[in-house]
């Protein structure tokens, strides 16, 4: 069995909300991540899906230790780095890299492509054989950009090409783990597929572990071996890809999957689950199970008792679900429409 | 035919040269049906819609061709005619409801204004109409929410309010420009279902602009695939998604992971990037990215520009014979299963 690379346990991150006219006092907190457990193994790709505001980006930033957690621990290769100092983090920085969503704002417009990609090597004091410049040219070739473009500036490239520059920059320090936060969602469909194929090839050839954060369930399914579904700061279900997509047990996972419009007309018809309303505010998350306000199965127990993330009867190893009244095979195929505007 | 667009061409004059945003585009939409316009950024989808609405600045743009709504020519119509039509006969839903609603006016006031302007209704009648519309699009407690401001609404609610505003005068044509791109999947599904339900009730024609073929599959009756300002394929939704003919449509379909696809098959994206609209490649604009150009020879694909053929029904703009395309598709499908 492969080793645990990154382990997040009981992780919380609260952002203070300040109010008041003159003296800004803390009046509340955004519970962006609120008790999250997650393990990324060496060389695996773990997908993290959820709707906007569910805390998936905050989780990514915590995992890279760009943010300090409010509570809980982040351990990398067994060492607790949750509150480690800059100096203590230095040797780890080169092993965990990030790819950002927006290829426009994540590259410095005043730096050449060469110096952007060289940056992490300079900061981390890495001297590859043959010199940094040669390594940059090699990296440009790996991400299928022309090495001659070493001295060009980001504005001379298209969105897809810029995202490749971001990938080359992340690869420059030979990371063990790449946190990719919506790496393709800003790109056009045809370009999206090019970047996904590139990341997948790198993952296979270099054995880098990925925490792949995205909202697109089809993209995540394509890219990840294991998938975690997040809702309001918590993992509600986590499983290997087949189990999660074929046998979702959490009603939210089920609803998400049924909402994805599929261009494949020959795909077997899926049930239609239409939730009412939007995700509640993470400032005052609902008590008990957070999904209960939009769930069609919610009962009194759901409001008082928080369901633990556990393995349910009949599920494979590693398939964990946090629900008091999980879905079973018998409910599949039934349409559930909660939205008052959709009268059927 | 309710909306008929013929040989529409839109050029913009910029410092870098003339941008050929839309070039010889023709399409039709019937009452009660939805046309999905699919394409990537810069393919001319939005420019086409703004032309239908008459929203292009005549000083910087040059528009030719013909746009007929219910038999009336819209190109060259006077400003006051267009003002009477906009919001009344033709309404639009934009991608980002936060920037397209006024932050200083309550949702109710914004909806009522449209109704008063076009229908000459009294203040109180328009206000009642606003409440009725909010109820129709599924906003809970419409009597309370009508007084609220856009910032008090969530993203999905704002999009519902936009739809309420667009439909307040029962327009014959509704243009929805990426109406769900900014929304989460669960909310997207609600909004798409809502549009479909409302269309069944009102019988409006809808132009739905999107880059997501999944959205097309779930809402459109007909599809127009655009590339570099031109139509490259046209047909019913089933024809285009089941038997796509243009290599670009193949590329789009091959680029999108689907929940039904086998997981280990790599995506088959289109190589390269879309062309600049200032220097559109000669002949077929897709030829620099096409994998099948050698089959016909460079001269054919870079020569005269291919037109949509056949003229009616399922057609595409490509010189490759249909038989050869069927063979290519069959071979690709065979490769996928082995």
Describe this structure in words.
The complex is a heterodimer of chains A (344) and B (338). Chain A has 344 residues and is α/β, with parallel strands linked by helices. Chain A contains 10 helices and 14 strands. Chain A has an 8-stranded mixed sheet with strand order 6-7-8-3-9-10-13-12, sandwiched between helices. In chain A, strands 2-1-4-5 form a 4-stranded antiparallel sheet. In chain A, helix 6 links the parallel strand 7 and strand 8. In chain A, helix 3 packs across helix 4 and helix 5 runs parallel beside helix 6. With 338 residues, chain B is of the alpha/beta class. In chain B, strands 6-7-8-3-9-10-11 form a 7-stranded mixed sheet, sandwiched between helices. In chain B, strands 2-1-4-5 form a 4-stranded antiparallel sheet, with helices on one face. In chain B, a hairpin with a 2-residue loop joins strand 4 and strand 5. In chain B, helix 4 packs across helix 5, helix 5 packs across helix 7 and helix 7 packs parallel to helix 8. Chain B is globular. The mean pLDDT of chain B is 91. Classes of the chains: A alpha/beta (344), B alpha/beta (338).
Structural class of chain A: alpha/beta
Main β sheet profile of chain A: 8 strands, mixed
Number of strands of chain A: 14
**End-to-end distance of chain B, in Å?**
46 Å
* Biggest interface, residues from each chain: A-B, 48 and 53 residues
- How much of the sequence lies in strands of chain B comes to 15-25%
- In the sheet with the most strands of chain A, the strands line up as 6-7-8-3-9-10-13-12
Helix-strand string of chain A: EEEHEEHEHHHEHEHEEHHEHEEE
Q: Which range best describes the helical content of chain A: under 10%, 10-25%, 25-40%, 40-55%, 55-70% or over 70%?
A: 25-40%
Compute the average pLDDT of chain B. 91
Q: Count of DSSP helices of chain B?
A: 14
Overall number of strands of chain B? 11
Quote the average pLDDT of chain A: 90
The shape of chain A is: globular
Helix and strand succession of chain B? EEEHEEHEHHHHHEHEHEEHHHHEH
Structural class of chain B: alpha/beta
Distance between the termini of chain A: 50 Å
Helix content of chain B: 25-40%
Q: Using only CA atoms, what is the Rg of chain A? A: 21 Å
Oligomer: heterodimer
């Amino acid at each position: 069995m492969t080793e645990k690379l990154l382990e997040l346990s009981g992780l919380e991150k609260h952002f203070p909300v300040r109010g008041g006219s003159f003296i800004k006092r803390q009046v509340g907190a955004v519970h962006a991540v609120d008790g999250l457990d997650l393990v990324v193994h060496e060389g695996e790709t773990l997908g993290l899906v959820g709707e906007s505001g569910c805390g998936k980006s905050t989780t990514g930033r915590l995992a890279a230790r760009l943010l300090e957690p409010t509570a809980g621990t982040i351990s990398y290769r067994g060492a607790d780095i949750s509150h480690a100092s800059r100096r203590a983090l230095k040797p780890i920085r080169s092993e965990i890299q990030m790819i950002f969503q927006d290829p426009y704002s994540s590259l410095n417009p005043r730096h050449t492509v060469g110096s952007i990609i060289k940056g992490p090597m300079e900061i981390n004091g890495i001297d590859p054989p043959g010199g940094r410049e040669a390594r940059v040219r090699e990296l440009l070739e790996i991400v299928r950009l022309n090495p001659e473009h070493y001295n060009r500036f980001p504005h001379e490239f298209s969105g897809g090409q810029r995202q490749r520059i971001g990938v080359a920059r992340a690869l420059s320090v030979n990371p063990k783990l790449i946190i990719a936060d919506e790496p393709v969602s800003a790109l056009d469909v045809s370009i999206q597929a090019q970047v996904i194929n590139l990341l997948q090839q790198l993952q296979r050839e270099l054995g880098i572990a990925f925490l792949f954060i995205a909202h697109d369930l089809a993209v995540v399914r394509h890219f990840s071996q294991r998938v975690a579904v997040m809702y309001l700061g918590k993992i509600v279900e986590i499983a290997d890809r087949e189990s999660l997509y074929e046998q979702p047990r959490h009603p939210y996972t089920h609803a998400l999957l049924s909402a994805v419009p599929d261009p494949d007309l020959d795909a077997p018809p899926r049930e239609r689950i239409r939730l009412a309303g939007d995700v509640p505010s993470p400032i005052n998350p609902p008590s008990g199970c957070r999904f209960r306000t939009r769930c069609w199965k919610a009962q009194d127990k759901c409001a008082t008792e928080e369901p633990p993330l556990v393995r349910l009867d009949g599920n494979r190893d590693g398939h964990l679900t946090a629900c008091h009244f999980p879905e079973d095979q018998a409910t599949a195929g039934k349409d559930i429409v909660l939205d008052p505007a959709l009268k059927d | 035919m309710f909306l008929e667009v013929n040989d529409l061409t839109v050029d913009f004059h910029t410092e870098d040269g003339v941008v050929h945003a839309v070039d010889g585009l023709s399409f039709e939409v019937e009452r009660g049906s939805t046309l999905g316009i699919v394409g990537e950024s810069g393919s001319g989808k939005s420019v086409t819609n703004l032309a239908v609405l008459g929203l292009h600045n005549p000083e910087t743009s040059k528009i030719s061709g013909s746009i007929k709504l219910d038999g009336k020519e819209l190109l060259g119509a006077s400003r006051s005619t267009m003002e009477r039509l906009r919001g009344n006969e033709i309404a639009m839903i934009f991608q980002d409801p936060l920037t397209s609603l006024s932050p200083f006016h309550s949702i109710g006031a914004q909806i009522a204004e449209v109704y008063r302007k076009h229908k000459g209704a009294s203040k109180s009648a328009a206000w009642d109409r606003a409440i009725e519309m909010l109820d129709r699009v599924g906003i809970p407690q419409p009597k309370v929410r009508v007084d609220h401001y856009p910032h008090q609404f969530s993203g999905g609610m704002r999009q519902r309010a936009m739809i309420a505003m667009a439909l307040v005068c029962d327009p014959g044509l509704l243009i929805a420009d990426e109406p769900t791109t900014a929304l989460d999947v669960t909310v997207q599904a609600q909004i798409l279902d809502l549009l479909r339900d409302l269309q069944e009730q009102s019988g409006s024609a809808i132009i739905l602009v999107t880059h997501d073929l999944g959205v097309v599959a779930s809402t459109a009756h007909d599809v127009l695939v655009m590339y570099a300002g031109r139509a490259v394929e046209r047909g019913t939704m089933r024809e285009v998604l089941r038997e796509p003919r243009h290599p670009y449509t193949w590329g789009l379909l091959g680029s999108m992971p689907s929940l039904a696809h086998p997981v280990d098959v790599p995506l088959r994206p289109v190589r390269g990037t879309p062309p600049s609209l200032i220097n559109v490649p000669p002949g077929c604009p897709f030829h620099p990215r096409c994998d099948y150009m050698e089959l016909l020879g460079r001269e054919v694909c870079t020569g005269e520009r291919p037109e949509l053929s056949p003229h009616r029904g399922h057609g595409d703009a490509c010189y490759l014979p249909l038989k050869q395309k069927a063979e290519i598709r069959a071979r690709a499908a065979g490769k996928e299963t082995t």
